[in-house]
Design goal:
There is one protein chain. The protein is about 40% helix and about 20% strand. The two termini are about 35 Å apart. The strands form four sheets. The protein has a seven-stranded parallel β-sheet, with helices on both faces. Strands 7-10 form a two-stranded parallel ribbon. It has a two-stranded parallel ribbon with strand order 8-13. With about 325 residues, it is of the alpha/beta class. Helix 5 packs parallel to helix 6. Bound molecules: uridine-diphosphate-N-acetylglucosamine. Uridine-diphosphate-N-acetylglucosamine binds next to helix 7 and strand 8.
């Protein structure tokens, strides 16, 4: 029996592969390296077992998928593989719809054809936009602001319809803002080019690859004027995926949306201060205009995750910054260091 992890060489996939291995599962990693690399697979194997199976394939390639299901006894799947850059999705909408929806449909179809019923899907709190009520619960209205966001929204809908009609049970995990790294410092986030996300950017400033952080907006209606997000340690997130698989194995059926967040919001300036503490020196920054498309504030109501999965986060913003810095410091240029 094995767990298939699509996008298994990526940031969240790699940490989840380690957590799955620690839970006693056999893992099959699948990735096309569109935003990851073979070195990540080596690093996962070094933390787990040199025998962890890896398949280089695109999920839109049905023959390749059939051969994965034929050659391993897959009983459950976690689907991470997707493009995820909001700005790029605006420039290349068809690439995003083709890749993200084509992969989800192709995978779901192959699962049904091969009799595999348990799926955990990588969704995002981006489907809430700026919620009216915070902390946000799973019953809040959903929508999207970018082609990337729509691919998450539409994938959720596709899976909801598929679960209603077919022998398929799914948990849609809506992640808040994953940061941090495995405590070993040997796997972590390795963005292509200049990072779009806050913490990778801050850490590249700290390590000297970038000159200074630009803080997008200081006139939000928050205690220090900067925007609030619910940052969650990637290892907590990984453990949430193991808990989700266990809930499905325990008989949870249908299609279920679950927030994975801490329930704690941090402003941009609070993140920078925590990062400076972890790094041990000041991180240069300047305030600039708001970034188009950003929301003011969001954090999760994580109660449903606790009820449904028996999971809660246990690592705080200081743990996140310590571990992210440990990865960045040990690998200043990511996996190619
Ligand atoms: C973004 C995506 C979201 C995606 C998530 C993945 C948008 C609008 N949303 O979330 O769909 O799921 O990444 O992790 O892009 N900030 C700065 N300076 C920077 C970078 C960020 O001040 O150089 C601020 C942002 O304005 C924001 C906060 O830091 O207030 C977090 O930004 P980011 O890490 O990009 O995440 P989100 O925008 O929340």
């Amino acid at each position: 029996m094995a767990t298939l992890v699509t996008g298994g060489a990526g940031y969240i996939g790699s940490h989840t592969a380690v957590a799955l291995h620690e839970s006693g599962r056999e893992v099959v990693l699948l990735d096309n390296f569109s935003n990851s690399c073979a070195e990540a697979v080596d690093a996962i194997r070094a933390l787990t077992t040199s025998g962890m199976a890896f398949v280089k394939a695109d999920l839109r390639d049905r023959d390749a998928l059939d051969s994965v299901f034929d050659s391993h006894e897959i009983t459950e799947v976690i689907h991470f593989a997707a493009f995820k850059a909001v700005g790029e999705s605006v420039e290349k909408p068809l690439d995003y719809y083709d890749n993200n929806l084509g992969s989800t449909i192709g995978l779901a179809r192959a699962m049904v054809d091969h009799g595999v019923e348990s799926l955990v899907f990588s969704s995002s709190c981006t489907v809430y936009g700026q919620p009216d009520v915070i902390p946000v619960t799973e019953s809040a209205p959903t929508g999207a602001e970018s082609p990337y966001g729509w691919t998450k929204y539409m994938s959720e809908q596709i899976l909801r319809d598929a679960c209603a009609a077919l022998p398929l049970n799914t948990i849609l995990l809506r992640y808040f803002n994953p940061v941090g790294a495995h405590e070993s410092g040997t796997i972590g986030e390795d963005p292509n080019g200049i990072p779009n996300n806050l913490v990778p950017f801050v850490m590249q400033v700290a390590v000297g690859r970038l000159e200074k952080l630009r803080v997008f907006g200081s006139d939000y209606n928050t205690p220090d004027g900067t925007a609030i997000r619910d940052y969650i340690h990637v290892v907590d997130l990984a453990e949430g995926h193991v808990a989700a698989l266990e809930a499905l194995a325990g008989g949870l059926s249908g299609c279920n949306a679950v927030n994975l967040g801490t329930g704690v919001g941090s402003t941009v300036l609070e993140v920078v201060a925590a990062a400076s503490d972890a790094v041990g020196h000041h991180i240069p920054s300047e305030i600039v205009d708001r970034r188009a498309g950003d929301i003011e504030k969001i954090w999760a109501d994580p109660a449903h995750a606790t009820e449904m999965l028996g999971w809660t986060s246990s690592r705080d913003i200081h743990d996140m910054m310590r571990d992210h810095w440990n990865w960045q410091r040990s690998n200043p240029n990511g996996y190619k260091s």
